[in-house]
Amino acid sequence: MSVYIAPQQDTIFVLDQLVELDKLAAQYALDDVSLELAEVIVQEAGKLATDVLSPLNTTGDKHGAVLVDQQVQQSPGYKEAYQQYVDNGWATLTGPTEFGGQGLPNVLGTAINELWHSANMAFALCPMLSQGAVEALTAHGSPELQKRYLHKLISGEWTGTMNLTEPNAGSDLAAIACKAKPEGDHYRIRGQKIYITWGDHQMTSNIVHLVLARLPDAPAGVKGISLFVVPKYLLSDEGEPTELNDARCISLEHKLGIHASPTCTMSFGDNDGAIGYLIGEPNKGLSYMFTMMNHARQSVGLQGLSISERAYQQARQFAKDRTQGTTKEGQKIAIIDYPDVRRMLMAMKSGCEAMRALSLCAAADIDKHHHGDLDAKARVEFYTPIVKGWMTELSQELTSLNIQIHGGMGFVEETGAAQHFRDARILTIYEGTTGIQALDLVGRKTLNDDANALKQLLNEVSNTVSQLSTSTDTTLNQITPRLNRALQKATAVKDWLLAQGKADRQMAANVSVDYLMMMGYLCGGWLMAKSALRAVELSGQNNLNSEANTYSEDFLTAKQGTAHFYAEYYLPRVHQHADTVLSGLSSTFSLDTDQL
Amino acid sequence: MSVYIAPQQDTIFVLDQLVELDKLAAQYALDDVSLELAEVIVQEAGKLATDVLSPLNTTGDKHGAVLVDQQVQQSPGYKEAYQQYVDNGWATLTGPTEFGGQGLPNVLGTAINELWHSANMAFALCPMLSQGAVEALTAHGSPELQKRYLHKLISGEWTGTMNLTEPNAGSDLAAIACKAKPEGDHYRIRGQKIYITWGDHQMTSNIVHLVLARLPDAPAGVKGISLFVVPKYLLSDEGEPTELNDARCISLEHKLGIHASPTCTMSFGDNDGAIGYLIGEPNKGLSYMFTMMNHARQSVGLQGLSISERAYQQARQFAKDRTQGTTKEGQKIAIIDYPDVRRMLMAMKSGCEAMRALSLCAAADIDKHHHGDLDAKARVEFYTPIVKGWMTELSQELTSLNIQIHGGMGFVEETGAAQHFRDARILTIYEGTTGIQALDLVGRKTLNDDANALKQLLNEVSNTVSQLSTSTDTTLNQITPRLNRALQKATAVKDWLLAQGKADRQMAANVSVDYLMMMGYLCGGWLMAKSALRAVELSGQNNLNSEANTYSEDFLTAKQGTAHFYAEYYLPRVHQHADTVLSGLSSTFSLDTDQL
């Protein structure tokens, strides 16, 4: 099995040079927040990730969660690992301070979450879901509900779940049929939910289910959905778990991957009805979900990076160790020295770096938005489907390259490469498929916005191109024209969308995924170029400041190399996807259903 | 589980309009061969594929082959299915008539093999390997060996295996260490072989292992490898299996997919040494392997088509059945009517059609080469790495789209979509990885050939462009400029290879996979355009001949639709890969090993 080591320096570089964390901390008077703090917590989290969570990743794949006597038994070792995660205070990182959280910015939470998902994605889904419950309750729960539930969710003493999907309501939440009947100060919830991640386990003394359901008099469709808290164990007046609520896991899915993450079918109200408490106002459930959506979707996008990084580290180690063939002098050749293996490793490394840059910048924009920056809000809205859609799609390719580098061994389960590939396959599906992200991007975030956010982003890319253009660095001079051509092509796509796409929404939908992928590769190329620019500046600097000092010359030239590779290897995809967009894929419906 | 139905009309269309089977039969006086015969055998094979092999595909995934008491037990039902396959005479299809084969051309064998691999790839690997053994013995075996082994291999009474790989010799056969010691009229073979497909089973009364090993005085490297027949059971003078040879399966791989195909570690000579018989001359084993290689590699490429077709059929059915959302009038909407789902289905269908066109044309060139056509030989050499590399790479994407169309259900194993995705993952690895194919294409088949075969192919594409240019059909007029631009780009790549690539072989290696993928998409686009051209001609024809009559108007317009989609969706990838080639990926080695 592969060893996972947190890519600390890469994370710090992005926080430092692209996010400009210190500036952000100063601007919003986040006194405790600094690059130094980031270094410390990445280092500490890295230890837990490497020593505890990463080795359990294989265990969990082989011995997935099981349902025994209507109770889910998590994979061996997971309860102890979770306890350690809680004891070390990791659950509290970004929670609001008034409920026991550390109140650190989302961008730092994201930097750390990357490590958890790399080390053990199936495990890390559990705290990820809890974070969603915390967010919902913090934003919309009554003070009473907050008091009873938030402290223990934030400390990690309890975990949280999100109950949305039903057998007939997948991407279409309007079809939700779960019912909630008022009864005194609470409601009785009845119905079935499917695909509930970590819907049950024995790691904590309680589980807080957030459930979408309809009140008796609710309007049809998405405007009649309300959000409820349904605890696994009902609480005493003192807030301690007492008797079991009428909510249970009735089956587990047998999945392609993430075996350690129990995917539950939850049945609410088989007997008297599960007791639940309304969050916020009636019929606002969906809009409450939307407030969490940007963060949740970005979190899944982040998983795309995490699992790719994990796969990259494994592929790199294998390629260094494995020899094939000999030199003329009879020396064995490590396969890392073969051009095509090197190409694949560079594709993985530069892809991961681009994703990390995008996800941390997008995460920082969530922080800026929370502090009232409306430009950042527009960016968050625009970035989110790209982070979710593009990064998870790219992770399919990069985890597959890990198998490819392993050759025949990659297809053998014991090697572990296959697990990352299988685990990754859920990422383009849950929390909204790539198609859903793409419709969101092209519709709400572009056409309905008159492409303002898009124009803003293209302006930023243009500014970077201008900066690059003044450089005399030979590597940057390789990157600049490629980025500029990609920018011009994306500008043509913008114009096309505003003309053709606006006039023909179906045509816009035809090309939506290509538009999303184009934007992903462009954003990646832009941030990689920016990284290279910073690396050149830092490298050429005579007066090294303390930050710059932390980067070795090797590290800085590598940043230029991966950016150069990205430009040669990935930027042509901007044109490919753009050409498909510009065709309008007018042939999408050229066949009748019966001709397919 | 999905039902598989042979895409009979599509197969016949390619054989008729692109391969021009009747012309081929006339040219080489293959009296029995005709389109009518093709229709009959596709229909009959389709029945066995649908009724017998296809249902066992899931069984084999759930209950893979197991090793019990040093014997491999195949999946339940497989022995009976294999017997039916043999009883119906399918094993004999292309075998030479002097040993009981039907002597049908390779292109018909390929058309039928597509069905077996679609229905049950793990099963079909067994006869596929036997075909390799037949080919080797037919080409290089002594009359005595042929007499003793060929009849029963061709009838299917026995099966064959290929024993190449060893723990330290993966892609690098020079490292083969297995030993063969002369002893009278035979040899004693000792050593271990890994990844031996269908290396053991109980479906037949014997198994004929073909084994690469070194004679005592053999030169080092690839020039010292000889090829041996090593039967599982030694033969009596009458040619009947008697006692067990000293060759056994000592373990099975636990694989990501194709669970029903036992992947054996074979141990030869644990006791007295396995008795083997030399095929042909000493030290020529590798060159004998090369004579089989084009066919074997094209067969694996074909598997890429087969599994994609299977995945497409499943996705199509699901998309028709599954509803999400309602129209304004309250009618449920089948997801097949959503643009992005339709896009994915069109990507799958047009991708399969392009692959089928390429694989059958390449298969027919093997026939033409066998009949002495030297131009065809050059095409076979050039096509083979493209068929193998591009088609198997594309199958990764298309089997993944099947999961994507299924949404959450695609990630659940019971649906069966995940199996095709898992099974497909081996295809870019075995029988030479994509990287190996790409090196072959760029090196031996292009640069060493002064790009003559490439130029020939570009000429053929150019001819098609010229034919298309004279058409007034509106769909063709959409396709023509796109194909022409792709052709121009490929021509630029040819020039680059002859200039830069020839001067810098490492740079050529950097971009080899991109070159291969570019060629694949170009070949696909060319043949799809040709199909559309034929469809337009047939459709506009007033004097329908009997062949043309077999195609409905719906079928012919669909051919134009998928070709149009291919041009909009896949041809931009020619430019993407070409742009990467033209960059030389000069950054591939920009990082030292330690910087990765």
From TrEMBL, chains A, B:
Record's protein name: Acyl-CoA dehydrogenase
**What InterPro entries is this protein classified in?**
Acyl-CoA_dh-like_C_dom, Acyl-CoA_Oxase/DH_mid-dom, Acyl-CoA_Oxase/DH_mid-dom_sf, AcylCo_DH-like_C, AcylCo_DH/oxidase_C, AcylCoA_DH/ox_N, AcylCoA_DH/ox_N_sf, AcylCoA_DH/oxidase_NM_dom_sf
Q: Where is the Acyl-CoA oxidase/dehydrogenase middle domain?
A: 162-269
Q: Which cofactor does it need?
A: FAD
Q: Pfam families annotated for this entry?
A: Acyl-CoA_dh_1, Acyl-CoA_dh_C, Acyl-CoA_dh_M, Acyl-CoA_dh_N
Task: State the signal peptide span.
Answer: none
SUPFAM superfamilies the UniProt entry points to: Acyl-CoA dehydrogenase C-terminal domain-like, Acyl-CoA dehydrogenase NM domain-like
The alphabetized UniProt keywords are: FAD, Flavoprotein, Oxidoreductase
What is stated as this protein's family in its record? Belongs to the acyl-CoA dehydrogenase family.
| Keyword Flavoprotein belongs to the record | yes
- Domain Acyl-CoA dehydrogenase/oxidase C-terminal, chain residue ranges per copy: 283-440
- Domain (Acyl-CoA dehydrogenase/oxidase N-terminal) spans 76-157
All copies of the Acetyl-CoA dehydrogenase-like C-terminal domain together span: 458-591
Taxonomically, the superkingdom here is Bacteria
